[in-house]
Amino acid sequence: MDVIAQKSFPAALPLGPQVPVDEPFWMGLLEGELRIQHCKECDRWIWGPSWVCQDCHAFDPPWEAVEPVGTVYSWTTTHHAFPASREFAESVPYTTALVELPHAGGRRILGIVTNTRDVRIGQHVRGWIQPAGESTGGWPVLRWIAEED
């Protein structure tokens, strides 16, 4: 495994609640939790944030803290800083993973892997919350650490 130092990464701004429906996600990160919506009517986990369950149409599905562990479903490594994302210029190359969360019904969520560029589909990862800072617009951000099998 090509190990790199676990480090903080910049984030594409703006971050934080953009619409009221996603506010519980961001408040969860501020409190050190990963929160995903979970419909109590039909037991469906929901990501991205929604006012209505896509299965049973129940309104305002609640948010639940879930363990931030999962497996890599897909990934990509970025080797070039694009003009629209200049804040990442000093961080290339970096790897972004689409992580499947078994504790959230298999919902998938994106994030940067901070300890290596060498990941593989099916690899176990553990989430960590990068503290709020200037490079993240004052909001914490979910990141991933790839675990060795």
Automatic annotation (TrEMBL):
Q: Which Gene3D superfamilies match?
A: 6.10.30.10
In this chain the ChsH2 C-terminal OB-fold domain maps to 63-127
- One Pfam match: zf-ChsH2
Q: Where is the ChsH2 rubredoxin-like zinc ribbon domain?
A: 26-60
> What top-level branch of life does the organism fall under?
Bacteria
The cross-references to InterPro entries, in alphabetical order and at most eight, read: ChsH2_C, ChsH2_Znr, NA-bd_OB-fold, Thioester_dehydratase-like
What is this protein identified as? OB-fold protein
